């Protein structure tokens, strides 16, 4: 069954704890936390302090997506704050294999992220070392953008490589996910769907989560 990871980027930050409890009760599987530094992406969001504040609020795994330059400098802080998965952009890592090893050595599930225009081939050498590959289905930086259809064949390609190599990493997609795009992604091989506005802007979060999981 596909897992649903609500992105708190679209939550009401003034009552973040309640927002997280609401989606947990609504059937969310992970909580997705978007970290942006104003350099790698043109927006600034949250850091380890927010991850640490959220940790006691939920039993769900915290899925931390680093959209930052020089992620190596902050891995330990996010691990100590309680991240269960830390994903870094291939476009931001000069020594990707070392960064992935470092995340694992901190006792955290390592993930790698590709922007929509970055080919899957870039991460072929490290597929056996990661627990998650996140394929961005929008250009990172903001919630509420339109799904980029040309990423679907990338999901299919990654799914094929995963099967051929007998690997078990999750394939996560993020950006513009609603029931229709969710179905395209799961059919192509996605195992985790990140959704921000579709869940948090909905009056009934439970219904929104169920629609992503099971279709409408
Ligand atoms: O990482 C990002 C944006 O950079 C995403 O996690 C967005 O938060 C997804 O938002 P929606 O497209 O679902 O509104």
From TrEMBL:
Q: Which reaction does it catalyse?
A: D-ribulose 5-phosphate = D-xylulose 5-phosphate
Q: Which cofactor does it need?
A: Mn(2+); Zn(2+); a divalent metal cation; Fe(2+)
Active-site residues are: 34, 174
Q: Which UniProt keywords apply?
A: Carbohydrate metabolism, Cobalt, Isomerase, Manganese, Metal-binding, Zinc
Question: What general EC class does the enzyme of this chain belong to?
Answer: isomerase
Gene Ontology cellular-component terms for this entry are: cytoplasm
Q: Which NCBIfam families match?
A: PRK05581.1-4, rpe
Q: Which family does it belong to?
A: Belongs to the ribulose-phosphate 3-epimerase family.
EC identifiers of the protein: 5.1.3.1
List GO molecular-function terms, semicolon-separated. D-ribulose-phosphate 3-epimerase activity; metal ion binding
Origin, by domain of life? Bacteria
What the record notes about the co-factor is:
Binds 1 divalent metal cation per subunit.
One GO term of the biological process aspect: pentose catabolic process
The name on file for this protein is Ribulose-phosphate 3-epimerase
InterPro entries, per database record: Aldolase_TIM, Ribul_P_3_epim, Ribul_P_3_epim-like, RibuloseP-bd_barrel
For a divalent metal cation, which residues are the binding ones? Answer: 32, 34, 65, 174
According to its UniProt entry, the function of this protein is described as:
Catalyzes the reversible epimerization of D-ribulose 5-phosphate to D-xylulose 5-phosphate.
Q: Which SUPFAM superfamilies match?
A: Ribulose-phoshate binding barrel
Q: Where does substrate bind?
A: 7, 65, 141-144, 174-176, 196-197
């Amino acid at each position: 069954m596909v897992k649903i990871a609500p992105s708190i980027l679209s939550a009401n930050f003034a009552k973040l704890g309640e927002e997280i409890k609401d989606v947990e009760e609504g059937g969310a599987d992970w909580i997705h936390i978007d970290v942006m530094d104003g350099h790698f992406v043109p927006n600034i969001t949250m850091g380890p302090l927010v991850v640490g504040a959220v940790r006691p609020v939920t039993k769900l795994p915290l899925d931390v997506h680093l959209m930052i330059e020089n992620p190596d400098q902050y891995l330990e802080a996010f691990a100590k704050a309680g991240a269960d998965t830390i994903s870094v952009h291939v476009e931001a890592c000069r020594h990707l294999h070392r960064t992935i090893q470092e995340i694992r050595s901190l006792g955290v599930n390592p993930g790698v992220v590709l922007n929509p225009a970055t080919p899957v081939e870039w991460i072929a050498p490290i597929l056996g070392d990661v627990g998650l590959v996140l394929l961005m289905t929008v250009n990172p930086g903001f919630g509420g953008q339109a799904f980029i259809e040309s990423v679907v064949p990338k999901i299919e390609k990654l799914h094929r490589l995963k099967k051929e190599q007998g690997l078990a990493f999750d394939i996560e997609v993020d950006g513009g996910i609603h029931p229709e795009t969710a179905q395209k992604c799961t059919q192509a091989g996605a195992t985790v769907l990140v959704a921000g506005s579709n869940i948090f802007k909905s009056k009934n979060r439970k219904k929104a989560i169920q629609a992503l999981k099971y279709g409408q």
